Structure of Alpha/beta hydrolase:
Amino acid sequence: MTLKVAPIRSTNVTVPEGPHGMIEATYDIPAEHNGAVALVAHCFTCNKNSPGVSRVSKTLARHGYASLRLTFSDLTLSHNVDDLHHVATWLSEKYTAPALLVGHSLGGAAALRAGSRIPSVKAVATIGAPFDPRHAAITLPDLIEQLAEASAGTYLDVPLSGRSIRITKEMLEDLARSVPARDIEALGRKKVNLMVAHSPFDQTVPFRDALKIIDAALQPASLIAVPEVDHLLTRRGSGQRVGELIAAWAQPYVT
């Protein structure tokens, strides 16, 4: 399928009165809109301006989607889901409700949970997403031990991917309450189309997580192996490649 490429403009916006504070976002708007709006969620160590999520969003926009990428107001997974729901409601009131939800890495886990809770969403695409987000903290056993007996509000600043990330006791407790199969099954019950993009060589989230997501899906779901991309989508062409695949896959469902 050949998609028509259109120029875009990017506008910074602030979504007011979020459940956990104001939410900063960037709206990538095509010159020729195909009628669909996408909402894009970033990875654990990222934000809306990180190369991966920015390039995915802009690629969607170049193929006609109006695409909004947000910076989560908090690192807690449940708060991320709340943010996605709030921004989707804001989009539906101010512009057009999002039909496509895209999530990168841990943002993919948030998208899998939020997708069934946003009435307008017809398709969810994940990129390098973990099946069980609780595994995001397994590689930090010392951190878990330090926070396990700590009081509420305790946090540690941990260097990850070149950034200092604040990990809280509440975040780990929230991850522990995750039930990934239930979130994925809820998408199937709502007949939300699902695409899982994952590199077989991902060193951060194993490819088997993608297989587990597909296996848990009640609806037919698409698994696309992207061996040419890295987990953070910083390798040249990675974000664009994944964005193009999502744009082509989602078009029949959302336009």
Notes: The helical segments are 51-62, 77-94, 106-114, 141-148, 169-176, 180-189, 207-216, 238-254. The two ends are 15 Å apart (CA to CA). DSSP finds eight helices and ten strands in the chain.
